[in-house]
Amino acid sequence: MDNILTFFENLNDFLTSSELLFFVGVLKFIAVFLTIIFLIRIMVLVMKSGYFNGVKKRYGWYFPGDMTPPRQRKKEIWRKIKNSFYKSNRGNNNLFAIDADDFLISVLSDLGLYGETLEDQLQQLGPSKLRNTSEVMRAHTLISGLRSGEDSFLSYDDAERIIFIYEEALKELGIIDNL
Question: Residue 57 pLDDT > 70, yes or no?
Answer without folding.
Answer: no
